[in-house]
Design goal:
This protein has five helices and 21 strands. By secondary structure, the protein is mainly β. It has an 18-stranded antiparallel beta barrel. The chain has a two-stranded parallel ribbon with strand order 2-16.
Length: about 550
């Protein structure tokens, strides 16, 4: 299995990687390690298959039996993931236009309510990644395409669109393109590795290349996907300087087009990212990250609009700023120049070199929003996050973790927005907080077509966030059966509670890379939540990684 194809799956399919919240070795990285081990191990020869040869007698030659030639490598690699999830909850959708895929804040503009009924559904997703590396180029270049189909059982048939299908009669046109990129790896020697990626790719707020990175490198470094974590089209350059101990320095420079309506008009949105990470001590990483976004879209493009003044931002739990002049009813055209500066540090973040691991990061968000006919608005936000994990017993799931999140809140100054802005203001699932381990308080990583929570965006809709989450897991059978309990509590910047959650999961792996699990959660909302009733959800899930 190509590591390019394999790890391209990581940031896309959160459900297949949610074990990385509390475990050390994720499902995909275990797949890669297992395949490499199998490739390096000679195949055993059964004793019965060995011909008996006398010491001084040559075996008879059978001219009509020729040895089989080894099958040539085609250069085409495949990685797929099938997910099936049966869910029962008291979350119901009241918006028929968003029934196929529902995301955002519970009780928000997505129409997802709590306590007004009961719902039960079975969802399925199949994602496949194909990577072709021409043999004549010796692995120095490859082309990757990724596709996805997902729907609810019995949903619709003879339809066209994403997140639909599965009805009686089938025949839905529902193939979604998630990757279409070329990767070039120049031969610069063993100490310097360089990867150039061109096309539609996954863009994270980490220095690590998603094509060769495990979940912990994405979930627990840089911005931890809280600011940017979605597909975009552009170009990336990933560099690594290595020695006998591993990576000494890593870097990323990328430029991505987030929005382009008129090819020859100045209405585009561009994101430029520069990151560097050094490894000064054993199992220790320190990183610095700078990202800048140039928005000249006017803010009113697309169905929901884009940017901090759009209904798209409001739908996904980000702050929707009102920059209309006093007495005006029509929103002005809004552009923006935004900047993020992040510092992060980690010790043994993947729990592979020690039982104890810790991460910490802080981000300063600044910039300016330009509104026609009114005053500009300055952006002055900040966010901090820290996590500690301990593997206290044998088994990947025998981990205790505690994590804290703080995000600044907007104040009363109309000329300053003092919260943070994330990629959720510019794209559907533009950013997702990935390591919290909750199902309803923050976004559920196991979601297929339903991803909604009390706090969907780390800005808290501009109200700020103060959150503490944690869990304790134990492997009843190491590597086979894991039981874990967890939960969390969150408040806004003024101290009003968003809510509290408790959850439980039992996961088993009956066959290699095939997982069956039962999850359940209950969330009690607080004054800052947009719902009043206690929410619950329970589901049975099946995941199968195929390569």
């Amino acid at each position: 299995m190509s590591r390019l194809a394999a790890s391209a799956l990581l940031p896309l399919l959160w459900p297949s990687l949610a074990l990385a919240q509390d475990q050390g070795a994720p499902l995909e990285s275990r797949a890669v390690a297992a395949e490499e081990e199998l490739a390096a191990t000679p195949a055993p020869v059964e004793p019965s298959a060995q011909p008996e040869v006398q010491p001084d007698v040559q075996p008879a030659v059978q001219p009509d039996v020729l040895p089989k030639a080894p099958k040539p490598e085609s250069g085409l690699k495949f990685l797929g993931l099938m997910q099936t999830k049966a869910t029962a909850s008291n979350l119901t959708s009241s918006n028929p236009f968003l029934d196929g895929q529902v995301l955002g804040t519970l009780g928000g503009t997505n129409g997802l309510t709590v306590g007004e009924g009961r719902s039960a559904a079975v969802e399925q997703r199949v994602t496949g990644f194909f990577t072709y590396s021409p043999q004549v180029l010796s692995g120095r270049a490859s082309l990757t395409a990724g596709f996805e189909i997902d729907y609810a059982f019995g949903d619709q048939s003879y339809v066209t669109g994403g997140n639909v299908g599965g009805g009686f009669g089938a025949d839905a046109v529902n193939l979604q393109t998630r990757r279409l990129m070329a990767t070039i790896k120049p031969n610069l020697g063993d100490q310097l590795r360089l990867s150039l990626v061109l096309g539609q790719q996954f863009v994270s707020d980490s220095v690590s290349d998603p094509a060769v990175s495990g979940p912990d490198e994405l979930f627990r470094s840089g911005g931890k996907l809280m600011f940017f974590g979605s597909e975009a089209t552009g170009v990336s350059a990933y560099a690594r300087v290595r020695n006998g101990w591993g990576d000494v320095v890593k870097g990323r420079l990328g430029a991505y087009s987030l929005y382009e309506r008129g090819t020859y008009e100045q209405d585009d949105v561009w994101l430029v990212m520069a990151d560097v990470q050094v490894n000064p001590l054993y199992a220790t990483h320190i990183g610095a990250h700078f990202w800048t976004l140039r928005d000249r879209s006017g803010g009113n493009q697309g169905i929901f609009g884009i940017g901090p003044t759009s209904s798209l931002a409001e739908l996904q739990g980000a702050a929707r700023l009102d920059l209309r002049p006093e007495g005006e009813t029509i929103a002005p055209a809004v552009s923006a120049d935004l900047y993020w500066v992040t510092l992060d540090a980690a010790f043994n973040r993947d729990l592979r070199l020690s039982p104890l691991g810790a991460t910490a990061m802080v981000t300063a968000n600044t910039g300016t929003l330009y509104a026609e006919g009114t005053n500009n608005v300055a952006v002055r936000g900040a966010l901090a996050n820290a996590e500690v994990r301990l593997r206290y017993a044998p088994g990947e799931g025998s981990v205790a973790r505690l994590e804290a999140l703080w995000a600044s809140a907007d104040d009363a100054d109309p000329l300053t927005y003092s919260g943070v802005i994330t990629g959720n203001s510019y794209g559907i699932v533009g950013a997702i907080y990935a390591s919290h381990g909750t199902l309803l308080l923050f976004s559920d990583l196991f979601s297929i077509n339903r991803m909604a929570s009390v706090v969907y965006d780390v800005s808290g809709g501009g109200g700020g966030v103060r959150a503490l989450t944690g869990s304790v897991g134990y492997d009843l059978v190491p590597g086979r059966v894991t039981v874990a309990v967890g939960g969390g509590h969150a408040r806004d910047g003024a101290g009003s509670p968003y809510g509290s959650e408790v959850n439980l999961r039992v996961v088993t792996e009956p066959y290699l890379f095939m997982r069956v699990g039962l999850w359940g959660a209950m969330m009690t909302p607080g004054e800052a939540a947009l719902v009043d009733e206690t929410a619950y959800a329970a589901y049975l899930g099946f995941d199968w990684l195929v390569f």
